[in-house]
Amino acid sequence: MPVLSASTGLHEMLALLTSQLHPDANHKEDLVFLREVFSERSLSYLMRIHERLRQYEHQSPTPVLHSAACLAEDVAEELQTGLLEGDEKELLMLLTTPHVKAVLTVHDTVAQKNFDPVLPPLPDDLEDELEEESVKIVRLVKNKEPLGATIRRDEVTGAVVVARIMRGGAADRSGLVHVGDELREVNGNLIIHKRPDEISQILSQSQGSITLKIIPAIKEEDKLKENTVYLRALFDYTPFEDKATPCQEAGLPFQKGDILQVVSQDDATWWQAKRVGDSNLRAGLIPSRHFQERRLAHRMKMGTYQSPKSPRSPPSGLRRSFRMSRKDRQSSPGESRSAEHGEPEFLTYKEVTRYQQKPSEKPRLVVLIGSLGARINELKQKVIAESPHRYGVAVPHTTRPRKSHEKEGVEYHFISKQAFEADIQSNKFIEYGEYKENQYGTSLESIRSVLSRNKMCLVDVQPEALKVLRTAEFKPYVIFVKPYLPEGRRHRSRAASPEGEMRHSAEQMEQQYSHLVDWILVKEDSASACVELRHILERLEREPQWVPVSWVRP
Q1: In the Cβ-directed half-sphere of 538, how many Cα atoms lie within 13 Å?
Q2: N or C, fewer C-beta in 10 Å, the chain?
Q3: Both 371 and 481 in a single domain?
Q4: What does the alpha-carbon distance between residue 31 and residue 28 come to, in Å, rounded to a whole number?
Q5: 409 and 442 within one domain
Q6: pLDDT at site 308
């Protein structure tokens, strides 16, 4: 009989067994039958398939992402926005082919399913403990993902209790473990004398079936469910750099501008949230608004933090409306009023909601702000000239005399200096200034006049004017335009180089006002910038956008 090793495949073993079948007189028919069965080519193929499946199973493959179909649609949409070369055309054709789309949809369906093994029956020796009403035996299946629960030591009783349940994690999906439950045993091992970090390590290292002995917490009656809250992050957060987080692995990293869905605020210090659009179903920990503001206040006190919204001199080299010098520019009374009663000092989160313009509503105001070299007035005028029936510009006011070719209300609204001063005192201008002894200003009524004709109004203003325009009436969509500056030229002196000045202007402006910006448009050339701006405006008309919740709810 040949020797078989552990590495011998099933199809090889089958061939060896077949070679050892020697029919004798008594069992000739049976052995002939077995030989015919074992020699069947289809059986050999099945054995080979079985081996490959077992090999694949041992590798424990996991999908890279759960949204391949959505990603393919996004790529196809990006490709359709520009001029396509040969390879790009071929890629677009492949991504829009029904068969490829169907394959990606099937991939996502399989990737999102849970193929965890069926739980085995509980051991017989646990039956006596189950008779106690206060003890609950919970068996969970855990793969490589975290269990989705943190624990702490009760300061009064010394018991190990569940501190929080991460939404979407294994513990949460089971519905069997709750905050406040007392943990007695893990896989039959008493943990009462172990430290919480030792217990967390046991749980994180465990794979497959985990058996927990729990004393359930006393549930609050009539506890109201929290409403889901959506926040726009106004700062970057990396859990592995945060020493205060209770569990770095459970933290949720995010970047400024990300939309976060807060699913639990039970903990006053650490909220649970998910990133909108993220395929990961498990929530992560983020610092609460109150906790983050306290930390920033402490850093400011220690001199290690300066709020981007703190008063400072205007960024050097900013585009100046009406070609005014800084010494000629005057501040609108509305600006100082907004500064006194404006947003919180620290930039943490802004509560937002989805907003889709209804047919009966006026269009949103589009505000363009730009750094030195952006030439946003030229960009605005080109887009309006291409579609004057869809877009309009707020006609400014001036005290200079009307020229022979000019018409009232077309190029300007021509008013007297006395009327202009009266409008200033009535806070009718979003910004104004003086140029060559004549006054110029953009009024709120000029904006309302464009919107009332169901046209999208485009204005280019100094960033300070956003304090007046960010209201539920206008719901402004803010686009920051900055010139394209190659990174390779950074070594040139900022003071001596025009590019250095433009870069410094863009960086300073972005640092101070990025929390108010909805889109950053990098202007490489006038033609491509116009195309991108048109696409932005078209999406704004047809797609819902995230806006401050105060703009929608009373």
Answers
A1: 9
A2: C
A3: yes
A4: 5
A5: yes
A6: 62
Same domain? For 454 and 510 the reply is yes
Question: Using N-to-C axis directions, what is the helix angle for 68-80 and 86-95, rounded to 10°?
Answer: 140
Taking CA atoms, 537 is separated from 11, 123, 232, 280, 307, in Å, by: 64, 64, 21, 31, 32
Contact at 8 Å (CB) between 162 and 151? yes
Helix axes 41-58, 10-19, angle to 10 degrees: 150
Could you give the 3-state DSSP secondary structure of residue 115?
coil
* Beta-sheet pairing, 545-548 with 349-355: antiparallel
For residue 412 the two structure tokens come to 């300007």
Do 435 and 375 fall into the same domain?
yes
User: Does the residue 504 lie in any domain?
Assistant: yes
What does the pLDDT look like over 439-472, one tens digit per residue? 999 999 999 999 999 999 999 999 999 999 999 9
pLDDT digits (tens, 9 = 90+) for 176-212: 888 888 888 887 778 777 777 777 777 777 777 788 8
Question: Is residue 438 within 8 Å of residue 403, measured between CB atoms?
Answer: no
Counted domains in the chain: 5
User: Which sign does the torsion angle of CA 30, 36, 39, 45 carry?
Assistant: negative
Q: What type of residue sits at position 150?
A: T
Q: Are residues 176 and 275 in the same domain?
A: no
Q: Tokens at residue 50, please?
A: 């079985």
Q: Is 501 inside any structural domain?
A: yes
CATH number assigned to the domain comprising residue 450: 3.40.50.300
Cβ neighbours of 310 (radius 10 Å): 10
Inter-CA distances, 226 with 250, 262, 265, Å: 21, 10, 8
Helices marked H in 373-495 — which ranges? 376-386, 417-425, 444-452, 466-469
Nearest to 396 by CA among 355, 364, 442: 442
Give the structural domain span for 286: 229-302
Task: Tell me if 276 sits within 8 A of 354, measured CB to CB.
Answer: no
pTM of the model: 0.59
Question: Within this chain, do residues 333 and 192 fall inside the same structural domain, yes or no?
Answer: no
In order of 294, 330, 351, 409, 468, the CA distances from 307 in angstroms are 13, 24, 19, 42, 20
Can you tell me the distance from the alpha carbon of 218 to that of 73, in angstroms, rounded to the nearest whole number?
Answer: 48
Per residue in 413-446, is it b (16+ CB within 10 Å) or e — as a string? bbbeeeebeebbeeebbbbbbbbeeebbbbbbeb
Give the CATH number of the domain where residue 165 resides.
2.30.42.10
433 located within any domain: yes
Percent of the chain with pLDDT over 70: 77
Based on the fold, state whether residues 203 and 237 are members of the same structural domain.
no
- Which residue type sits at 388? P
How many other CB atoms are found less than 10 A from the CB of residue 365? 23
Quickly tell me which residue has 């009989």 as its tokens: 1
Query: Tell me: the pLDDT tens digits for 27-62?
Result: 666 677 777 777 777 777 888 888 877 777 666 667
Q: Are residues 294 and 374 in the same domain?
A: no
